[in-house]
Amino acid sequence: MAKAPVLTPQAEDFPRWYQDLINKAELADNGPVRGTMVIRPYGYGLWERMQQDMDLRIKESGAQNAYFPLFIPQSYLTREAEHVEGFAPELAVVTHGGGKQLEEPVVVRPTSETIINEYFSKWVQSYRDLPLLINQWANVVRWEMRPRLFLRTSEFLWQEGHTAHATYEDARDYAAHIHRNVYEAFMRDVLAIDVVPGRKTAKERFAGAINTLTLEAMMGDGKALQMGTSHELGQNFAKAFDTTYLSKEGKQELVWQTSWGSTTRMIGALVMSHGDDNGLRVPPRLAHIQVVVMAIKGDDTVVAKVREIGDRLTAAGIRVKVDDRTDTPFGRRAVDWELKGIPVRVEIGPRDLENGTAMVARRIAGGKEPVALDALEALLPKLLEEDQELLLTQSRERRESRTSEVATLEEAAEVAVGGGWARIPWADLGPEGEEKLGEQSVSVRCLVAEDGSVPVADDAPGTVAIVARSY
Amino acid sequence: MAKAPVLTPQAEDFPRWYQDLINKAELADNGPVRGTMVIRPYGYGLWERMQQDMDLRIKESGAQNAYFPLFIPQSYLTREAEHVEGFAPELAVVTHGGGKQLEEPVVVRPTSETIINEYFSKWVQSYRDLPLLINQWANVVRWEMRPRLFLRTSEFLWQEGHTAHATYEDARDYAAHIHRNVYEAFMRDVLAIDVVPGRKTAKERFAGAINTLTLEAMMGDGKALQMGTSHELGQNFAKAFDTTYLSKEGKQELVWQTSWGSTTRMIGALVMSHGDDNGLRVPPRLAHIQVVVMAIKGDDTVVAKVREIGDRLTAAGIRVKVDDRTDTPFGRRAVDWELKGIPVRVEIGPRDLENGTAMVARRIAGGKEPVALDALEALLPKLLEEDQELLLTQSRERRESRTSEVATLEEAAEVAVGGGWARIPWADLGPEGEEKLGEQSVSVRCLVAEDGSVPVADDAPGTVAIVARSY
């Protein structure tokens, strides 16, 4: 008898599969206010690991954490013209505080360029204060009309970096450093997602930026997801907030700035990149539970052994969860760990103990076989490394197999609508072609150079546009 | 010639000294919206260390982190009558989102009992789901009429724990565990603040709780500061949100709950507990910079040596900052590190190098003397441990020397108004006496037992009230 599937199969209805998985793997729930989200402990555990790893990389890049207020005076937003135009439709506005109507309404931060520049303009006095490299971990609010858990939520969690530099070159290089050495390295090496680094077209740029660098990934259904962006802000905010410094030569100069962000959307990317019809598959380097050691039955010897092996594996540096909840049927627990995407299950019952073995079940590579108990410490780290690589390989292979080189706008649209990525010379598409693609809900995800590097300008020779539908 | 003091002396004007210190040690700035705060990198570094340490203790207590939405439907607040009465005057209300007026206004969370109970009521089904132990690190907003940086801000950062239990006893014991084994242990062992654990009187209880446990500390001016609270919520929120579970016996029962919080206010406590006329003094176990190694002059040999020693001390497990910014005068840098309260400065100039020594200046114990360079690794950890203990001793001695046993309400008020703590039998004061004290801005900070333990009830025999002015 075939089991009823736990999740709607991907092939049947990908968005429904996604929603099912988020729900059944206990990653998140919808919040009571439209578009908001409750991140459940298992989902938040993934976010905590992302934070820890990224925070280290950000600090190694010289930035320090700080915290700026949630509430921004409405007037700040309007100082940078493009910025306010970009964000005005998404703002949440507080009109009452402490039982009274406020004299000036305040907005809940959609991003913090404006309020941070207000302080940069006070803190930066001389060239000695530069570069000023600040990051914050915070919640932001952008009112969302078509919310989807993790991907588009009215409130989300993120880190936002904000920096000020003495020269254009220094700012440009720092934005590029974050783009490649922090974001791309993290997404590739830890999330095991084969992201494509590129630059956004003028149309897709961050509101207020002179250049937006992006990382785009292909999801399981062939659509693109923007994974993180790093912006060169030029002197736009510096002008609006008068953020200047006294140069070595004794002249008052405007600073050059960057900002860069990555969000809880990365959890959605993880799901849609690595998930399958049985649930999530978490890359071992990210996983806060890499191995679950399960007692099949509530036999005292088994439970004692399971705990002992849990301790041994923990001592060996593996992140382990012991599952000895034997009052819940084994099958139900196994399905749950599979749904949650724990890379390896070590299953132990009375018969295994007699043989001195455990069943090792692999969520990522697949397969299940008996392993001698005293061989686990040596074997598991190897399996986990293999699994990590396999996920990245699968991510790359999907992107490659579903990407087509095309020559015309029509072909590009056809590929994108069919669930793939099209590569087309930007010179053959251009801003007009980009507009036309928009009519079919297709967009230019990013511009790349022929050799896979990031072009220095939109019109650099050999620039290729990656065209796709996107989340 | 006497130097002009960097800070207003404590004895002259304590609140002004506090404000000066926060500003000059670069801990925080006032935000643009009244009552909000910008936490600068040095101040945020203190908070990060607090978070790391507390988070570990919270996880060891079995709680898992999660994240609930910032926005709460206004109607949720009103479901628990005392709760809404307590918080209504402090709410920030969002009336517009995405360019439209909202059908139901939403409040920015002042605390999350209501929204969390909405989900607990879905997640908790059977006794197997209990206890449910959740914590979140988040920002909250309580509109503040008389803001003061870190102590009272309209937005602050905190952790809030929320738990559900099958029995009254289990909830009570968990609230007590957090109170003593997490909060008190952290504040005493890491913050080096001699906190007093006690229970709040009915008047001072959290809105919606049946019992509030508190930790009170004496600040440098003899006033009290509430450092953290742990509440038994009884079944108040469970009733309001219908949070029930199926018991082993197959009956539907209401859960018993706790909540507990500690905030960025602890940074203010640190300043007012350990600060002196030269600035902050950071307990070494908390300090993210324990030792600063300073180059006195920009001599190449000196700078190289300073960096080498920095690396050596880092390798020895000390949290070190190398200060080789020799284009800024040495004296100004030394005053800055003193202001910031770095426990130990290792100062190295050309003459020290000739002698193979460094000057070791101690911010907490005081004094400055030459130490052989190769003796630093062995010596510094000892000095840091001494400093940690000294701060706790000074905190305890201040509290003891400024606490008086009194017999009447009048005496209690006199002690409190004079900048001390009064201890008076609760049976002699009672709720009526408590009301009268309020007229002189004096309050009962907490109730303690004669042996220093926490009384099991307000009217337990031998209960003593601690009476003081407070922040």
Q: Gyration radius of chain A, to the nearest Å?
A: 25 Å
Quick one: CATH superfamily of the largest domain in chain A? Bira Bifunctional Protein, Domain 2
- What would the average pLDDT of chain A be, to the nearest integer? 96
Biggest interface: chains and residue counts? A-B, 57 and 57 residues
CATH topology of the largest domain in chain A: BirA Bifunctional Protein, domain 2
| Silhouette of chain A | globular
Largest sheet, strands/sense/barrel of chain A: 7 strands, mixed
List segments of chain A where confidence is low: pLDDT < 50 over at least 5 consecutive residues: none
Distance between the termini of chain A: 37 Å
Subcellular location (chains A, B): Cytoplasm
Catalytic activity (chains A, B): tRNA(Pro) + L-proline + ATP = L-prolyl-tRNA(Pro) + AMP + diphosphate
Subunit structure (chains A, B): Homodimer.
Family (chains A, B): Belongs to the class-II aminoacyl-tRNA synthetase family. ProS type 3 subfamily.
